[in-house]
Design a protein that fits this description.
heterodimer; A: 515 residues; 19 helices; 17 strands; elongated; B: 136 residues; alpha/beta; 6-stranded mixed beta sheet; globular; disordered N terminus
Chain lengths: 515, 136
Protein backbone atom coordinates (compact mmCIF):
# COMPACT_ATOMS: atom_id res chain seq x y z
CA UNK A 1 0.00 0.00 0.00
CA UNK A 2 1.61 3.21 -0.99
CA UNK A 3 0.90 6.70 0.06
CA UNK A 4 -1.68 7.40 -2.63
CA UNK A 5 -3.78 4.42 -1.70
CA UNK A 6 -4.19 5.49 1.91
CA UNK A 7 -6.47 8.30 0.93
CA UNK A 8 -7.66 11.58 2.53
CA UNK A 9 -8.33 10.12 5.94
CA UNK A 10 -4.66 9.44 6.30
CA UNK A 11 -3.86 13.12 6.01
CA UNK A 12 -6.76 14.30 8.16
CA UNK A 13 -5.82 12.59 11.42
CA UNK A 14 -3.98 14.71 13.99
CA UNK A 15 -1.49 12.05 14.92
CA UNK A 16 1.63 11.49 12.93
CA UNK A 17 1.48 8.23 10.94
CA UNK A 18 4.66 6.84 9.46
CA UNK A 19 4.81 3.45 7.73
CA UNK A 20 8.10 1.69 7.11
CA UNK A 21 8.82 -1.54 5.31
CA UNK A 22 10.73 -4.39 6.81
CA UNK A 23 13.96 -2.88 5.55
CA UNK A 24 13.16 0.25 7.54
CA UNK A 25 12.43 2.44 4.59
CA UNK A 26 9.62 4.98 4.88
CA UNK A 27 6.70 4.13 2.65
CA UNK A 28 4.03 6.46 4.01
CA UNK A 29 4.25 9.92 5.71
CA UNK A 30 1.05 11.80 6.47
CA UNK A 31 0.47 15.55 6.76
CA UNK A 32 0.64 15.45 10.59
CA UNK A 33 4.13 13.87 10.30
CA UNK A 34 5.22 16.66 7.98
CA UNK A 35 3.89 19.21 10.48
CA UNK A 36 5.56 17.47 13.43
CA UNK A 37 8.97 16.72 11.99
CA UNK A 38 9.27 19.45 9.36
CA UNK A 39 9.96 17.17 6.43
CA UNK A 40 7.44 16.93 3.61
CA UNK A 41 6.25 13.55 2.36
CA UNK A 42 8.41 14.15 -0.66
CA UNK A 43 11.50 14.51 1.56
CA UNK A 44 10.66 11.55 3.77
CA UNK A 45 9.39 8.86 1.46
CA UNK A 46 12.02 6.29 0.59
CA UNK A 47 14.41 7.46 3.31
CA UNK A 48 15.60 5.09 6.03
CA UNK A 49 13.41 5.77 9.05
CA UNK A 50 16.44 5.40 11.36
CA UNK A 51 18.30 8.12 9.44
CA UNK A 52 15.44 10.52 9.57
CA UNK A 53 14.00 9.85 13.01
CA UNK A 54 16.89 8.34 14.94
CA UNK A 55 17.25 4.97 16.62
CA UNK A 56 14.43 2.50 16.39
CA UNK A 57 14.62 0.34 19.53
CA UNK A 58 12.63 -2.85 20.12
CA UNK A 59 14.68 -5.48 18.20
CA UNK A 60 12.01 -8.16 18.90
CA UNK A 61 9.26 -6.08 17.36
CA UNK A 62 8.56 -8.58 14.59
CA UNK A 63 7.95 -11.34 17.12
CA UNK A 64 5.87 -9.30 19.60
CA UNK A 65 4.10 -7.29 16.94
CA UNK A 66 3.68 -4.19 19.14
CA UNK A 67 5.80 -1.62 20.92
CA UNK A 68 5.12 1.66 22.47
CA UNK A 69 7.22 4.23 24.25
CA UNK A 70 8.57 7.75 24.34
CA UNK A 71 11.35 8.63 21.94
CA UNK A 72 13.53 11.66 21.74
CA UNK A 73 13.67 12.84 18.14
CA UNK A 74 14.98 15.83 16.32
CA UNK A 75 12.92 17.88 13.86
CA UNK A 76 14.20 19.10 10.49
CA UNK A 77 15.02 22.49 12.02
CA UNK A 78 16.98 20.90 14.89
CA UNK A 79 14.32 21.23 17.58
CA UNK A 80 14.33 18.46 20.23
CA UNK A 81 11.06 16.60 20.36
CA UNK A 82 9.59 14.07 22.72
CA UNK A 83 7.24 11.80 20.80
CA UNK A 84 5.00 9.14 22.23
CA UNK A 85 5.02 6.37 19.55
CA UNK A 86 3.14 3.12 18.99
CA UNK A 87 4.37 0.61 16.53
CA UNK A 88 2.16 -2.09 15.08
CA UNK A 89 3.36 -4.83 12.70
CA UNK A 90 0.98 -5.48 9.81
CA UNK A 91 1.04 -9.06 8.59
CA UNK A 92 -0.30 -10.86 5.55
CA UNK A 93 -2.92 -13.56 5.78
CA UNK A 94 -0.24 -16.14 6.43
CA UNK A 95 1.00 -14.08 9.35
CA UNK A 96 4.15 -12.93 7.71
CA UNK A 97 5.13 -9.37 8.63
CA UNK A 98 4.59 -6.86 5.85
CA UNK A 99 5.33 -3.46 7.34
CA UNK A 100 5.47 -1.41 10.58
CA UNK A 101 2.89 1.30 11.20
CA UNK A 102 3.91 4.02 13.61
CA UNK A 103 1.58 6.53 15.19
CA UNK A 104 3.24 9.37 17.01
CA UNK A 105 2.03 12.12 19.33
CA UNK A 106 4.04 15.19 20.25
CA UNK A 107 4.36 15.38 24.06
CA UNK A 108 7.34 17.77 24.11
CA UNK A 109 5.49 20.65 25.86
CA UNK A 110 3.91 18.37 28.42
CA UNK A 111 7.23 16.80 29.30
CA UNK A 112 8.89 20.22 29.64
CA UNK A 113 6.21 21.46 32.02
CA UNK A 114 6.46 18.29 34.03
CA UNK A 115 10.24 18.59 34.20
CA UNK A 116 10.01 22.20 35.34
CA UNK A 117 7.43 21.28 37.95
CA UNK A 118 9.45 18.44 39.30
CA UNK A 119 12.55 20.61 39.42
CA UNK A 120 10.62 23.25 41.33
CA UNK A 121 9.15 20.66 43.67
CA UNK A 122 12.61 19.19 44.16
CA UNK A 123 14.06 22.60 44.93
CA UNK A 124 11.23 23.35 47.34
CA UNK A 125 11.72 20.00 49.10
CA UNK A 126 15.45 20.65 49.32
CA UNK A 127 14.88 24.08 50.81
CA UNK A 128 12.23 22.76 53.16
CA UNK A 129 14.50 19.98 54.36
CA UNK A 130 17.84 21.73 54.41
CA UNK A 131 17.17 25.32 55.51
CA UNK A 132 18.52 26.25 58.90
CA UNK A 133 15.06 27.41 59.89
CA UNK A 134 12.25 25.28 61.19
CA UNK A 135 9.60 24.73 58.53
CA UNK A 136 6.19 23.28 58.97
CA UNK A 137 3.62 22.28 56.42
CA UNK A 138 0.20 22.40 58.00
CA UNK A 139 -3.23 21.19 56.97
CA UNK A 140 -5.37 24.24 57.44
CA UNK A 141 -8.53 23.03 55.69
CA UNK A 142 -10.66 22.47 58.82
CA UNK A 143 -9.83 26.03 59.93
CA UNK A 144 -11.10 27.26 56.57
CA UNK A 145 -14.33 25.35 57.23
CA UNK A 146 -14.62 26.93 60.68
CA UNK A 147 -14.10 30.39 59.20
CA UNK A 148 -16.79 29.73 56.60
CA UNK A 149 -19.17 28.60 59.35
CA UNK A 150 -18.46 31.76 61.32
CA UNK A 151 -19.06 33.88 58.26
CA UNK A 152 -22.39 32.15 57.65
CA UNK A 153 -23.30 32.92 61.25
CA UNK A 154 -22.78 36.58 60.42
CA UNK A 155 -19.26 37.11 61.79
CA UNK A 156 -17.49 39.66 59.61
CA UNK A 157 -14.66 40.91 61.81
CA UNK A 158 -12.63 37.77 62.53
CA UNK A 159 -9.96 39.72 64.43
CA UNK A 160 -12.46 41.14 66.92
CA UNK A 161 -14.30 37.83 67.15
CA UNK A 162 -11.16 35.81 67.91
CA UNK A 163 -9.98 38.43 70.41
CA UNK A 164 -13.28 37.98 72.23
CA UNK A 165 -13.30 34.20 71.87
CA UNK A 166 -9.76 32.92 72.38
CA UNK A 167 -11.28 29.47 72.94
CA UNK A 168 -12.29 29.47 69.26
CA UNK A 169 -8.69 30.21 68.28
CA UNK A 170 -7.59 27.32 70.53
CA UNK A 171 -10.17 25.09 68.82
CA UNK A 172 -8.72 26.13 65.47
CA UNK A 173 -5.28 25.04 66.70
CA UNK A 174 -6.72 21.64 67.55
CA UNK A 175 -7.96 21.11 63.99
CA UNK A 176 -4.75 22.39 62.39
CA UNK A 177 -2.62 19.32 61.79
CA UNK A 178 0.98 18.84 60.82
CA UNK A 179 1.62 17.39 57.34
CA UNK A 180 5.38 17.63 57.38
CA UNK A 181 8.25 19.25 59.26
CA UNK A 182 11.92 19.52 58.41
CA UNK A 183 14.88 18.24 60.41
CA UNK A 184 15.54 21.67 61.87
CA UNK A 185 12.05 21.66 63.37
CA UNK A 186 12.65 18.25 64.93
CA UNK A 187 15.93 19.50 66.41
CA UNK A 188 14.55 22.87 67.59
CA UNK A 189 11.49 21.35 69.23
CA UNK A 190 13.53 18.62 70.88
CA UNK A 191 12.03 15.63 69.04
CA UNK A 192 13.68 12.41 67.94
CA UNK A 193 11.86 12.00 64.63
CA UNK A 194 9.25 13.85 62.63
CA UNK A 195 6.64 11.54 64.12
CA UNK A 196 7.09 13.31 67.47
CA UNK A 197 5.69 16.50 65.97
CA UNK A 198 2.75 15.08 64.09
CA UNK A 199 -0.78 15.71 65.26
CA UNK A 200 -2.45 19.05 65.95
CA UNK A 201 -0.54 22.22 66.78
CA UNK A 202 -2.23 23.38 69.98
CA UNK A 203 0.47 22.08 72.29
CA UNK A 204 3.07 24.30 70.58
CA UNK A 205 1.16 27.50 71.44
CA UNK A 206 1.32 28.90 75.01
CA UNK A 207 -1.95 30.54 76.12
CA UNK A 208 -0.31 33.95 76.06
CA UNK A 209 0.53 33.55 72.36
CA UNK A 210 -3.02 32.65 71.28
CA UNK A 211 -3.58 36.10 69.84
CA UNK A 212 -0.60 35.64 67.50
CA UNK A 213 -2.10 32.43 66.14
CA UNK A 214 -5.43 34.26 65.80
CA UNK A 215 -3.73 37.11 63.94
CA UNK A 216 -2.18 34.58 61.54
CA UNK A 217 -5.61 33.07 60.89
CA UNK A 218 -7.03 36.55 60.26
CA UNK A 219 -4.15 37.30 57.88
CA UNK A 220 -4.78 34.07 55.97
CA UNK A 221 -8.51 34.81 55.81
CA UNK A 222 -7.88 38.32 54.56
CA UNK A 223 -5.78 36.95 51.70
CA UNK A 224 -2.58 38.58 52.93
CA UNK A 225 0.51 37.24 51.19
CA UNK A 226 2.30 36.48 54.41
CA UNK A 227 2.33 37.03 58.15
CA UNK A 228 5.17 37.38 60.60
CA UNK A 229 5.33 38.18 64.30
CA UNK A 230 7.67 37.73 67.23
CA UNK A 231 6.07 35.55 69.85
CA UNK A 232 6.70 32.79 72.33
CA UNK A 233 6.21 29.17 71.32
CA UNK A 234 6.44 25.92 73.21
CA UNK A 235 8.77 22.98 72.63
CA UNK A 236 7.83 19.32 73.03
CA UNK A 237 9.03 19.26 76.64
CA UNK A 238 6.91 22.33 77.44
CA UNK A 239 9.78 24.84 77.54
CA UNK A 240 8.84 28.19 76.00
CA UNK A 241 11.17 30.07 73.68
CA UNK A 242 11.20 33.38 71.80
CA UNK A 243 10.54 32.88 68.12
CA UNK A 244 9.87 34.68 64.92
CA UNK A 245 6.73 33.02 63.56
CA UNK A 246 6.18 33.45 59.83
CA UNK A 247 3.43 32.09 57.67
CA UNK A 248 3.09 32.42 53.95
CA UNK A 249 -0.06 31.92 52.06
CA UNK A 250 0.77 31.19 48.41
CA UNK A 251 -2.49 30.95 46.48
CA UNK A 252 -1.84 27.34 45.35
CA UNK A 253 -1.29 26.07 48.88
CA UNK A 254 -4.21 28.08 50.28
CA UNK A 255 -6.30 26.44 47.56
CA UNK A 256 -5.09 23.03 48.74
CA UNK A 257 -5.70 24.08 52.33
CA UNK A 258 -2.05 23.85 53.34
CA UNK A 259 0.12 26.47 54.98
CA UNK A 260 3.86 26.85 55.07
CA UNK A 261 5.11 28.04 58.45
CA UNK A 262 8.63 29.12 59.32
CA UNK A 263 9.85 29.35 62.90
CA UNK A 264 13.13 31.06 63.67
CA UNK A 265 14.55 30.60 67.13
CA UNK A 266 15.23 34.04 68.63
CA UNK A 267 16.15 32.90 72.12
CA UNK A 268 19.86 33.53 71.57
CA UNK A 269 19.12 37.01 70.26
CA UNK A 270 16.66 37.78 73.03
CA UNK A 271 19.17 36.50 75.60
CA UNK A 272 21.88 38.69 74.10
CA UNK A 273 19.53 41.69 74.14
CA UNK A 274 18.62 41.04 77.74
CA UNK A 275 22.29 40.77 78.65
CA UNK A 276 23.03 43.98 76.78
CA UNK A 277 20.27 45.80 78.67
CA UNK A 278 21.57 44.41 81.94
CA UNK A 279 25.11 45.52 81.11
CA UNK A 280 23.88 48.90 80.03
CA UNK A 281 21.97 49.33 83.26
CA UNK A 282 25.06 48.33 85.23
CA UNK A 283 27.16 50.81 83.31
CA UNK A 284 24.61 53.55 83.80
CA UNK A 285 24.55 52.77 87.51
CA UNK A 286 28.35 52.81 87.77
CA UNK A 287 28.38 56.17 86.00
CA UNK A 288 25.69 57.51 88.36
CA UNK A 289 27.63 56.46 91.42
CA UNK A 290 30.77 58.05 90.04
CA UNK A 291 28.79 61.21 89.23
CA UNK A 292 27.37 61.30 92.77
CA UNK A 293 30.93 61.02 94.04
CA UNK A 294 31.93 64.08 92.07
CA UNK A 295 28.89 65.96 93.29
CA UNK A 296 29.31 65.06 96.95
CA UNK A 297 30.08 68.64 97.97
CA UNK A 298 27.08 69.96 96.09
CA UNK A 299 24.77 67.30 97.50
CA UNK A 300 26.08 67.80 101.03
CA UNK A 301 25.28 71.47 100.66
CA UNK A 302 21.76 70.69 99.50
CA UNK A 303 21.20 68.54 102.60
CA UNK A 304 22.97 71.01 104.82
CA UNK A 305 20.63 73.89 103.94
CA UNK A 306 17.50 72.42 105.52
CA UNK A 307 19.56 71.01 108.41
CA UNK A 308 20.97 74.47 109.06
CA UNK A 309 17.46 75.89 108.87
CA UNK A 310 16.18 73.28 111.33
CA UNK A 311 19.01 73.95 113.73
CA UNK A 312 18.50 77.71 113.47
CA UNK A 313 14.73 77.35 113.92
CA UNK A 314 15.26 75.17 116.97
CA UNK A 315 17.58 77.75 118.51
CA UNK A 316 15.04 80.48 117.89
CA UNK A 317 12.35 78.26 119.39
CA UNK A 318 14.40 77.85 122.55
CA UNK A 319 14.65 81.65 122.81
CA UNK A 320 10.91 82.18 122.45
CA UNK A 321 10.26 79.39 124.96
CA UNK A 322 12.70 80.88 127.46
CA UNK A 323 10.83 84.15 127.58
CA UNK A 324 8.71 84.79 130.68
CA UNK A 325 5.67 84.70 128.33
CA UNK A 326 6.47 82.05 125.62
CA UNK A 327 5.33 83.33 122.24
CA UNK A 328 3.14 80.48 121.00
CA UNK A 329 2.49 82.10 117.61
CA UNK A 330 6.22 82.26 116.93
CA UNK A 331 6.66 78.70 118.16
CA UNK A 332 3.88 77.42 115.90
CA UNK A 333 5.43 79.13 112.87
CA UNK A 334 8.84 77.71 113.77
CA UNK A 335 7.44 74.21 114.15
CA UNK A 336 5.78 74.40 110.75
CA UNK A 337 9.07 75.47 109.19
CA UNK A 338 10.98 72.67 110.92
CA UNK A 339 8.59 70.06 109.55
CA UNK A 340 8.90 71.51 106.04
CA UNK A 341 12.68 71.59 106.25
CA UNK A 342 12.88 68.04 107.55
CA UNK A 343 10.72 66.93 104.64
CA UNK A 344 12.92 68.81 102.23
CA UNK A 345 16.04 67.10 103.60
CA UNK A 346 14.33 63.71 103.35
CA UNK A 347 13.39 64.40 99.72
CA UNK A 348 16.97 65.28 98.80
CA UNK A 349 18.28 62.16 100.48
CA UNK A 350 15.62 60.11 98.69
CA UNK A 351 16.77 61.46 95.34
CA UNK A 352 20.38 60.67 96.13
CA UNK A 353 19.38 57.17 97.22
CA UNK A 354 17.45 56.64 93.97
CA UNK A 355 20.52 57.67 92.04
CA UNK A 356 22.82 55.45 94.06
CA UNK A 357 20.62 52.37 94.17
CA UNK A 358 20.92 49.69 91.56
CA UNK A 359 17.60 48.51 90.35
CA UNK A 360 16.07 47.38 87.09
CA UNK A 361 15.04 50.36 84.96
CA UNK A 362 11.29 50.94 85.14
CA UNK A 363 9.38 53.30 82.92
CA UNK A 364 6.41 55.40 84.01
CA UNK A 365 4.72 58.52 82.63
CA UNK A 366 6.72 61.48 83.93
CA UNK A 367 6.65 65.25 83.72
CA UNK A 368 9.90 66.24 82.08
CA UNK A 369 9.79 69.65 83.76
CA UNK A 370 9.63 68.19 87.29
CA UNK A 371 12.38 65.77 86.34
CA UNK A 372 14.60 68.61 85.12
CA UNK A 373 13.91 70.74 88.20
CA UNK A 374 14.89 67.88 90.49
CA UNK A 375 18.00 67.04 88.49
CA UNK A 376 19.22 70.60 88.61
CA UNK A 377 19.09 70.55 92.44
CA UNK A 378 22.04 68.14 92.38
CA UNK A 379 24.07 70.86 90.71
CA UNK A 380 22.89 74.10 92.25
CA UNK A 381 25.74 74.40 94.66
CA UNK A 382 28.28 73.13 92.12
CA UNK A 383 27.14 75.88 89.74
CA UNK A 384 27.25 78.58 92.42
CA UNK A 385 30.70 77.51 93.50
CA UNK A 386 31.97 77.92 89.95
CA UNK A 387 30.16 81.20 89.40
CA UNK A 388 27.77 79.70 86.88
CA UNK A 389 24.20 80.94 86.48
CA UNK A 390 21.67 78.15 85.93
CA UNK A 391 18.75 79.30 83.88
CA UNK A 392 15.70 77.02 83.51
CA UNK A 393 13.21 77.68 80.78
CA UNK A 394 10.48 75.06 80.96
CA UNK A 395 7.69 74.93 78.41
CA UNK A 396 4.16 74.79 79.80
CA UNK A 397 1.66 72.04 78.98
CA UNK A 398 4.18 69.46 77.79
CA UNK A 399 2.87 65.91 77.33
CA UNK A 400 4.45 63.44 79.70
CA UNK A 401 7.23 61.07 78.66
CA UNK A 402 7.38 57.35 79.32
CA UNK A 403 10.76 56.99 80.98
CA UNK A 404 12.90 55.74 83.83
CA UNK A 405 13.13 58.80 86.10
CA UNK A 406 16.56 58.06 87.53
CA UNK A 407 18.15 57.37 84.16
CA UNK A 408 16.78 60.49 82.46
CA UNK A 409 17.78 62.58 85.49
CA UNK A 410 21.22 61.06 85.17
CA UNK A 411 21.39 62.30 81.59
CA UNK A 412 20.27 65.82 82.56
CA UNK A 413 22.71 65.97 85.49
CA UNK A 414 25.52 64.63 83.31
CA UNK A 415 24.90 67.15 80.52
CA UNK A 416 24.53 70.06 82.94
CA UNK A 417 27.62 69.02 84.94
CA UNK A 418 29.58 68.86 81.68
CA UNK A 419 28.29 72.34 80.80
CA UNK A 420 29.37 73.73 84.18
CA UNK A 421 32.79 72.13 83.82
CA UNK A 422 33.15 73.38 80.26
CA UNK A 423 33.03 76.95 81.56
CA UNK A 424 35.63 76.50 84.30
CA UNK A 425 38.13 78.47 82.26
CA UNK A 426 35.70 80.56 80.23
CA UNK A 427 35.88 84.34 80.12
CA UNK A 428 32.71 86.38 80.07
CA UNK A 429 29.29 85.34 81.30
CA UNK A 430 28.97 81.78 82.59
CA UNK A 431 25.50 80.54 81.93
CA UNK A 432 23.96 77.10 81.69
CA UNK A 433 20.51 77.07 80.16
CA UNK A 434 18.22 74.06 80.50
CA UNK A 435 15.24 74.32 78.18
CA UNK A 436 12.32 71.99 77.61
CA UNK A 437 10.14 72.26 74.53
CA UNK A 438 7.68 70.41 72.35
CA UNK A 439 9.47 69.63 69.09
CA UNK A 440 7.68 69.88 65.75
CA UNK A 441 7.60 66.08 65.45
CA UNK A 442 5.62 65.84 68.71
CA UNK A 443 8.62 64.70 70.74
CA UNK A 444 9.72 66.37 73.93
CA UNK A 445 13.10 68.03 73.63
CA UNK A 446 15.50 68.96 76.41
CA UNK A 447 18.41 71.24 75.56
CA UNK A 448 21.35 72.01 77.84
CA UNK A 449 23.42 74.90 76.56
CA UNK A 450 26.47 76.66 77.93
CA UNK A 451 28.46 79.78 77.15
CA UNK A 452 31.82 78.00 77.31
CA UNK A 453 34.44 77.61 74.60
CA UNK A 454 32.30 75.24 72.50
CA UNK A 455 33.29 71.93 70.93
CA UNK A 456 36.21 71.64 68.50
CA UNK A 457 34.76 70.75 65.08
CA UNK A 458 37.08 67.71 64.91
CA UNK A 459 35.68 66.40 68.18
CA UNK A 460 32.00 66.81 67.29
CA UNK A 461 31.57 63.49 65.47
CA UNK A 462 33.37 61.54 68.21
CA UNK A 463 31.73 63.02 71.30
CA UNK A 464 29.44 60.06 71.90
CA UNK A 465 32.10 57.42 71.30
CA UNK A 466 33.21 55.36 74.27
CA UNK A 467 36.45 56.45 75.92
CA UNK A 468 36.56 59.68 73.93
CA UNK A 469 37.22 62.55 76.30
CA UNK A 470 38.57 66.07 76.18
CA UNK A 471 38.97 66.24 79.95
CA UNK A 472 42.27 65.53 81.64
CA UNK A 473 40.66 63.21 84.21
CA UNK A 474 37.67 62.09 82.13
CA UNK A 475 36.79 58.48 81.50
CA UNK A 476 34.95 59.20 78.29
CA UNK A 477 31.92 57.18 79.35
CA UNK A 478 29.48 59.91 80.36
CA UNK A 479 28.14 60.84 76.94
CA UNK A 480 28.09 57.28 75.52
CA UNK A 481 26.03 56.25 78.54
CA UNK A 482 23.73 59.25 78.03
CA UNK A 483 23.27 58.17 74.42
CA UNK A 484 22.55 54.55 75.27
CA UNK A 485 20.03 55.65 77.91
CA UNK A 486 18.26 58.00 75.51
CA UNK A 487 18.26 55.48 72.67
CA UNK A 488 16.87 52.77 74.93
CA UNK A 489 14.03 55.20 75.59
CA UNK A 490 13.39 55.49 71.86
CA UNK A 491 14.90 58.97 71.68
CA UNK A 492 17.95 60.59 70.19
CA UNK A 493 20.70 62.88 71.41
CA UNK A 494 22.93 65.33 69.56
CA UNK A 495 25.53 68.00 70.19
CA UNK A 496 26.22 71.22 68.34
CA UNK A 497 27.98 74.52 68.79
CA UNK A 498 25.67 77.46 69.41
CA UNK A 499 24.81 79.40 66.29
CA UNK A 500 24.53 82.67 68.22
CA UNK A 501 27.20 83.40 70.75
CA UNK A 502 29.79 81.15 72.30
CA UNK A 503 29.33 77.69 73.75
CA UNK A 504 27.75 74.39 72.90
CA UNK A 505 24.33 72.78 73.21
CA UNK A 506 23.36 69.19 73.89
CA UNK A 507 19.81 68.21 73.03
CA UNK A 508 17.90 65.03 73.49
CA UNK A 509 14.35 64.24 72.58
CA UNK A 510 12.00 61.58 73.87
CA UNK A 511 8.71 60.35 72.47
CA UNK A 512 5.58 61.57 74.25
CA UNK A 513 4.02 58.92 76.48
CA UNK A 514 0.72 58.80 74.61
CA UNK A 515 2.32 58.69 71.18
CA UNK B 1 7.74 85.85 110.52
CA UNK B 2 6.07 88.82 108.97
CA UNK B 3 5.40 88.88 105.25
CA UNK B 4 6.28 92.33 104.00
CA UNK B 5 4.56 93.91 101.03
CA UNK B 6 7.82 94.36 99.15
CA UNK B 7 9.02 90.85 98.35
CA UNK B 8 12.67 91.84 98.40
CA UNK B 9 12.53 93.19 101.90
CA UNK B 10 10.78 91.71 104.91
CA UNK B 11 11.17 93.96 107.88
CA UNK B 12 9.62 94.18 111.27
CA UNK B 13 10.24 96.82 113.83
CA UNK B 14 10.52 95.53 117.38
CA UNK B 15 11.59 98.77 118.98
CA UNK B 16 12.94 101.98 117.57
CA UNK B 17 16.09 101.69 119.60
CA UNK B 18 16.94 98.05 118.83
CA UNK B 19 19.74 97.51 116.29
CA UNK B 20 18.68 96.60 112.72
CA UNK B 21 20.21 93.41 111.35
CA UNK B 22 20.04 92.74 107.60
CA UNK B 23 20.06 89.13 106.45
CA UNK B 24 21.03 88.19 102.87
CA UNK B 25 20.42 84.54 102.10
CA UNK B 26 19.14 82.95 98.87
CA UNK B 27 17.71 79.81 100.47
CA UNK B 28 14.22 80.82 101.51
CA UNK B 29 13.75 78.44 104.41
CA UNK B 30 17.14 79.20 105.88
CA UNK B 31 16.47 82.91 105.45
CA UNK B 32 13.18 82.58 107.34
CA UNK B 33 14.88 80.58 110.07
CA UNK B 34 17.62 83.17 110.48
CA UNK B 35 15.09 86.00 110.56
CA UNK B 36 13.24 84.12 113.30
CA UNK B 37 16.38 83.52 115.32
CA UNK B 38 17.62 87.10 115.10
CA UNK B 39 14.17 88.39 116.05
CA UNK B 40 14.09 86.03 119.01
CA UNK B 41 17.27 87.75 120.15
CA UNK B 42 15.37 91.02 120.25
CA UNK B 43 16.76 92.72 117.15
CA UNK B 44 14.95 94.32 114.28
CA UNK B 45 15.42 92.36 111.02
CA UNK B 46 15.37 93.09 107.30
CA UNK B 47 15.98 90.23 104.86
CA UNK B 48 16.94 89.98 101.21
CA UNK B 49 17.09 86.96 98.87
CA UNK B 50 20.25 88.22 97.14
CA UNK B 51 23.04 90.78 97.36
CA UNK B 52 21.70 92.82 94.45
CA UNK B 53 18.40 93.52 96.22
CA UNK B 54 20.26 94.39 99.40
CA UNK B 55 22.52 96.87 97.60
CA UNK B 56 19.65 98.34 95.60
CA UNK B 57 17.80 99.05 98.87
CA UNK B 58 20.87 100.88 100.14
CA UNK B 59 20.37 98.73 103.25
CA UNK B 60 24.06 98.77 104.22
CA UNK B 61 23.88 102.30 105.51
CA UNK B 62 20.79 101.73 107.65
CA UNK B 63 21.83 98.40 109.14
CA UNK B 64 23.82 97.96 112.30
CA UNK B 65 25.07 94.62 111.04
CA UNK B 66 24.73 92.45 107.92
CA UNK B 67 24.57 88.66 107.96
CA UNK B 68 25.16 87.28 104.46
CA UNK B 69 25.55 83.89 102.85
CA UNK B 70 28.72 83.65 100.75
CA UNK B 71 27.51 81.35 97.91
CA UNK B 72 24.58 82.92 96.12
CA UNK B 73 23.56 83.23 92.50
CA UNK B 74 24.90 86.49 91.15
CA UNK B 75 26.95 88.54 93.61
CA UNK B 76 28.49 86.57 96.45
CA UNK B 77 28.62 87.63 100.09
CA UNK B 78 32.27 88.58 99.60
CA UNK B 79 31.32 90.74 96.58
CA UNK B 80 28.69 92.40 98.76
CA UNK B 81 31.26 93.30 101.41
CA UNK B 82 33.67 94.65 98.80
CA UNK B 83 30.89 96.79 97.27
CA UNK B 84 30.05 98.23 100.69
CA UNK B 85 33.72 98.96 101.37
CA UNK B 86 34.06 100.62 97.96
CA UNK B 87 31.13 102.90 98.89
CA UNK B 88 32.75 103.66 102.25
CA UNK B 89 30.10 101.78 104.21
CA UNK B 90 31.75 100.21 107.26
CA UNK B 91 28.74 98.31 108.62
CA UNK B 92 30.11 95.04 110.07
CA UNK B 93 29.44 91.96 107.93
CA UNK B 94 29.02 88.44 109.28
CA UNK B 95 29.51 85.80 106.59
CA UNK B 96 27.91 82.38 106.52
CA UNK B 97 29.00 79.42 104.39
CA UNK B 98 28.46 75.70 104.09
CA UNK B 99 31.93 75.28 102.68
CA UNK B 100 34.99 74.20 104.58
CA UNK B 101 37.81 75.21 102.22
CA UNK B 102 40.48 77.22 104.07
CA UNK B 103 41.07 79.32 100.94
CA UNK B 104 37.47 80.52 101.04
CA UNK B 105 37.77 81.36 104.72
CA UNK B 106 40.91 83.37 104.09
CA UNK B 107 39.26 85.17 101.21
CA UNK B 108 36.26 86.01 103.38
CA UNK B 109 38.37 87.33 106.22
CA UNK B 110 40.60 89.25 103.80
CA UNK B 111 37.54 91.03 102.39
CA UNK B 112 36.92 92.41 105.88
CA UNK B 113 34.29 90.06 107.30
CA UNK B 114 34.07 90.52 111.02
CA UNK B 115 32.98 86.96 111.58
CA UNK B 116 32.61 83.71 109.63
CA UNK B 117 30.00 81.08 110.52
CA UNK B 118 29.91 77.51 109.18
CA UNK B 119 26.46 76.13 108.45
CA UNK B 120 24.83 74.77 110.44
CA UNK B 121 25.69 77.14 113.25
CA UNK B 122 24.42 77.35 116.81
CA UNK B 123 22.49 80.26 118.22
CA UNK B 124 25.38 80.82 120.65
CA UNK B 125 27.87 81.18 117.82
CA UNK B 126 25.61 83.70 116.10
CA UNK B 127 25.04 85.64 119.32
CA UNK B 128 28.77 85.81 119.93
CA UNK B 129 29.36 87.13 116.43
CA UNK B 130 26.52 89.64 116.69
CA UNK B 131 27.80 90.88 120.05
CA UNK B 132 31.25 91.33 118.59
CA UNK B 133 29.92 93.08 115.48
CA UNK B 134 27.62 95.44 117.35
CA UNK B 135 30.33 96.31 119.89
CA UNK B 136 32.63 97.42 117.08
Amino acid sequence: MDQGERGDLFDLVHESIVVRDLAGRITAWNAASAALYGWSAHDALGRAAADLLGDLPAPDLLETGRWEGELKRRAADGRDLVVEVRWTVRRDTAGRPLEVIETGRDITARRQTEAALSLSEHRYRNLFAAMAAAFWELDFKPVGDMLRDLRSQGVTDFAAYLAEHPEVARAMMRVTTVIDVNDETVALYGGQTKADLMGDVERFWPEASTEVYAAAVVAAASRAASFSRETRLRKLDGEEFDALFTACFPRESVGRGTLLIGVIDLSARVRAERMLHELQAQFAHAARVSMLGELTASIAHEVNQPLAAISTNASAGMRWLSRPQPDLEELRAINTRVVADAERAARIIGRVRDMAMRRAPATEPLSINTLVEEAVLFLRHEAQGKGVMMDLSLAADLPSVLADRTQIQQVVVNLAANAIQAMAAAEGPRQVGVRTALASDGRIAVTVSDTGPGIRPDDLPRLFESFFTTKADGMGMGLPICRSIIETHGGSIAASNNAQGPGASFSFSLPAADA
Amino acid sequence: MIHGTAPACEAVIMSTVDPLISIVEDDESLRQAMVGLVRSLGYRVASYPNAEDFLAADAGLHSNCVITDIQMPGLSGIDLKLRLAADGVTTPVIMVTARAEPALHEKAMASGACCLLRKPFTAEALIECLDRALAA
